Sequence to fold (224 residues):
Amino acid sequence: NAGVMQNPRHLVRRRGQEARLRCSPMKGHSHVYWYRQLPEEGLKFMVYLQKENIIDESGMPKERFSAEFPKEGPSILRIQQVVRGDSAAYFCASSLGQGNTEAFFGQGTRLTVV
Amino acid sequence: RKEVEQDPGPFNVPEGATVAFNCTYSNSASQSFFWYRQDCRKEPKLLMSVYSSGNEDGRFTAQLNRASQYISLLIRDSKLSDSATYLCVVANTGGFKTIFGAGTRLFVKA
Fold:
């Protein structure tokens, strides 16, 4: 049973470009979380999704950021018109239950905006 | 007040020392509690779940105090390999959200 798969592991974008980060949850998991981690800081919750639904996006910046988890395929975190401040590690986690079970993490995508 | 608060540390301890971390949470309806460990530039990994009765796994002991809304992690006989950031995690079934604390850094030195 493969773990949570994130790709790409490293992504370099120029300012103004779009970044697309993908996350395939563990088999059987329908709950996906995205977190951002700036250098030397803790994990910041961004969004919680179930298949085809955004449950909680209270941690998402109001502009340029969007997330989806379609019926088929991976969850996508999309950042439009990236700026240098978007440079961070983005971690995806999945869980089996509704928050009362442990979350398993992917290895993260390290986004660098140049 | 943050939903989950931890002392950021760092804690610098010698090998063999006992070290304790505390974490407080604000939502009294929180249901599940975990400690995760994160090594530098790696993904967080589950260290242990925390139960009301307390639980122990080798050198690690976790406890939950619902009345005071805090959880703790005790590490005995610290090893160099214990050096990492320890994340307190609180899951709220009502809010369907898992909240991670900012983490406590531990450095164990020879």
